[in-house]
Amino acid sequence: MPSKRASQEFSHADWRRHRSIYRHLHHLLTAPASGIAKGIFRPVMCVVVLSTLIAAYSHSFAIHCLPHGLPAPPSIAMQPVQLSSFALSLLLVFRTNVSYARWLDARRAFGTISTSSQDLARQVCVPSTTAHLPVADLPWLIAVAKCSMVHLRDTGCHDLRTELTNVLQPHELDMLCQAGNKPIFCLQMISRIIATSGLDHVLVVHMDERVTKLYEAFTGCERILNTPIPLSYTRHTARCLLVWLACLPFSMWGYCGWAMIPIAALVACVLLGIEEIGVYIEEPFSILALEALCSRQQRTIDTMLTEQAFLDQLDAQEPQRQAAASQQQQPADPVLSYPACMA
């Protein structure tokens, strides 16, 4: 199954709830169940434990409760911590912005797969004067999106046969499961069908352009999946953040006393939360609502097929309607009437 922290497609009700004046209270009350909070719980607790030990040692040393000979608690001036906080902030902001850009690119790329396949299905459903693609070949357009979802998700999240059982024929599904890169195989099948359809050359060129857009969108998704943010940047950001948080209690005891424990915990929650969000959205396909996009694409194509069958039925009845309309418009035979005086 995909991540429980996966995003969803918003409806009007979701947007109203998202803009609610009570959203701050709701987000605060649901913070313990947040995936981000669970992800940063351990490092935050490490900061709390370190702050508690430093506070206990400093307090015990101040009231002379420690054995003689123990060194004084170390102390760090506040100025180095304040100066380094600007550099740390830039690291975190850049990290989060780049991760969001990757998330947005992934959403656009997979959205292109959905919209281009729907547009290609629309072209397939339009009758041609020379030929017409069989509607049984349209399931390959649905298979492209679902195969892309399975390919981009972690192994074990989805079963390809389960996803495509009601989409492809059994022999087609067996052939697809034996392919190496399954989305590319679907695109090859679509290109093969278009090339052998007997359609006009202009229509074939337009459809092939849509297949090319599908290919570019899928390879764009693969590029995002296979290429993370440079690991040296991610590692350096994490190391600087942990060192800065470890130095924070040593500089805050002289200013805050025991209050430094909750203050250090709060600062750690904020900074570690920002860093966790950047890591969380860096790989966007585990959190994007790909299931909803694939389901919407399948419903759209199924609706196109249903409406096309209705339009074909209307086209078949068109000659009968035209014949009936022409009969109603024919003028009646003139009836000669003579005045009574002429009789």
Range of helix content: over 70%
Number of strands: 0
What's the N-to-C terminus distance? Answer: 97 Å
What best-fitting shape do the alpha-carbon axes yield? elongated
**Largest sheet geometry:** none
The amount of beta strand, in percent, is under 5%
Stretches with pLDDT under 50, minimum 5 residues: 335-343
- Discrete helix count: 12
User: How confident is the prediction overall: mean pLDDT?
Assistant: 85
Report the order of strands and helices. Answer: HHHHHHHHHHHH
Structural class: mainly alpha
Radius of gyration: 33 Å
Folded structure, characterized:
By secondary structure, the chain is mostly helical. Helices cover 72% and strands 0% of the residues. The protein is built from 12 helices and no strands. Helix 4 packs parallel to helix 11, helix 5 packs antiparallel against helix 12 and helix 10 runs antiparallel to helix 11.
